[in-house]
Amino acid sequence: MLRPWRTRWRRRETPDDAVVVTDHADDAVRDRGIGPVTDRVAVLSDVHGVLPALTAVLAEPDVQAAELIVLTGDIAAGPQPVRTLDLLGSLGDRAVWVGGNCERELVAAARGNAVPEPISAWAGTQLRTEHVELLDGLPKTATLHVRGLGEVLFCHATPRDDEEFVLVDSPLGRWAEVLDGAPDTIVCGHTHMPYVRLADRRTIVNPGSVGMPYGTTGAHWALLGGSDGPAIQLRRTHFDRASAADAIEAECDFPEVAEWTRFYLREPASDAEALAVFTP
Ligand SMILES: [Mn+2]
């Protein structure tokens, strides 16, 4: 509920007695009792087991300074699944994990079931038992109270489904259907194309993909919250794609790894090509 008569500015006890800005969104969520306020959240989606891209993003000062790092699914289905999971596991409680459709596929592959994507079938067989148990237990959504944004729901594709498609230009009726019951701010990945849009008062953020961007290069991620600057930032970290492809080909024994690195690192697909696959 919006309370326009409430003061927008509050004074808080801080070491330097600075004035800290809060706003109505923070008040509304605090009143509903949804967790402590997280100041800054880095969102890394669709890492897809590309360690050089992940390493580059984790080295960003704003990611290192973030209170939490939210992983919105499709984390390890790619050429370096084990090292990716081990590195993210080293973040401990700073990482908030949300599962995507590829986590389901890796678990299925690890347990001897057929999965459609060849790299997921291979990656599943690389995992240790603790990886499989971790991925099998991941929640489909996470909710945080982020400073300046209020309640934020994190999911992989949509809050209700981990593999349906919504795009920046999906019509309002489609958004109303897939976001039924969701809060005012939703972060979703899955389509590997970054955007921020409004849909009937809700703000939807797609950080893009760390490891498999379509239409652009670099590793895409998002920074949320904070009491200064924009509360939603779409960010991109550049890294040496040729060196990354060389390193992946040298260590990965997935039989089609050279084709994979060509398609996702050396000569990445365009957004138009991706949309042709996504759109029925
Ligand atoms: Mn996905």
In short:
The chain is an alpha/beta fold and about 280 residues long. It has helices spanning about 25-30, 50-60, 60-65, 80-90, 100-110, 120-125, 130-135, 170-180, 240-250, 255-265, 270-280; strands at about 10, 20, 35-40, 40-45, 70, 95-100, 140-145, 150-155, 185, 195-200, 200-205, 220-225, 230-235.
Q: What is the CATH C-level name?
A: Alpha Beta
CATH architecture: 4-Layer Sandwich
Total of helices: 11
Distance between the amino and carboxyl termini:
39 Å
Helix/strand order, N-terminal first: EEHEEHHEHEHHHEEHEEEEEHHH
Number of strands: 13
Write the CATH fold name.
Purple Acid Phosphatase, chain A, domain 2
**Number of structurally distinct domains:** 1
Overall description:
This protein is of the alpha/beta class and 280 residues long. The chain has one domain (38-278): Purple Acid Phosphatase, chain A, domain 2 (4-Layer Sandwich). It has helices at 24-32, 51-58, 61-64, 81-89, 101-110, 118-126, 129-136, 172-178, 241-251, 257-266, 271-278; strands at residues 9-11, 19-21, 37-38, 40-44, 68-72, 95-98, 141-146, 150-155, 185-187, 195-199, 202-206, 219-225, 232-237. The chain has a six-stranded mixed β-sheet with strand order 3-7-8-9-11-10. Strand 12 and strand 13 (232-237) form a beta hairpin. Helix 5 (101-110) packs across helix 6 (118-126) and helix 9 packs antiparallel against helix 10 (257-266). The longest helix is centred in the last third of the chain and has 11 residues, at 241-251. Bound molecules: manganese (II) ion (MN). Residues 74, 100-102, 156, 190 line the site of manganese (II) ion. Residues 74, 100-102, 156, 190 line the site of manganese (II) ion (MN).
